[in-house]
């Protein structure tokens, strides 16, 4: 019984460490349908590949976050501008 509990604790520890590395940052379930002016956008990130819907998370100067569909052209352009101005 102690061996089973020990094994279970070990597996939970390994699993929780794996979750930290692969867990989605943000996923979107509701989407903003209007355009956000480029001057109001602070950053743009993609949702994690494990999310059900591909999307961009737009962070504004007022500290708000908006989910915008991955196929929205202005959001793609904002993301491309963001990544080109901050190369890794």
Automatic annotation (TrEMBL):
Q: Is the Signal keyword given for this protein?
A: yes
- First-listed, main subcellular location of the protein, grouped into a coarse class: secreted
- Domain Chemokine interleukin-8-like residue range list: 24-82
One GO cellular component term noted in the UniProt record for this chain: extracellular space
Q: Which domain of life is it from?
A: Eukaryota
Q: Which UniProt keywords apply?
A: Cytokine, Secreted, Signal
Can you name one GO molecular function term for this protein?
Answer: chemokine activity
What SUPFAM superfamilies does the annotation carry? Interleukin 8-like chemokines (SSF54117)
Q: Which Pfam families match?
A: IL8
Q: What is this protein called?
A: C-C motif chemokine 4-like
């Amino acid at each position: 019984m102690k061996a089973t509990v020990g094994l279970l604790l070990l597996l939970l520890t390994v699993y929780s460490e794996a979750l930290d590395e692969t867990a989605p940052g943000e996923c979107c379930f509701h989407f903003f349908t209007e355009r956000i002016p480029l001057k109001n956008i602070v950053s743009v990130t993609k949702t994690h590949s494990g999310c059900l819907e591909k999307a961009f998370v737009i962070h504004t100067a007022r500290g708000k976050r908006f989910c915008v569909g991955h196929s929205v052209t202005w959001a793609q352009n904002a993301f491309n501008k963001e990544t080109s101005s901050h190369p890794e």
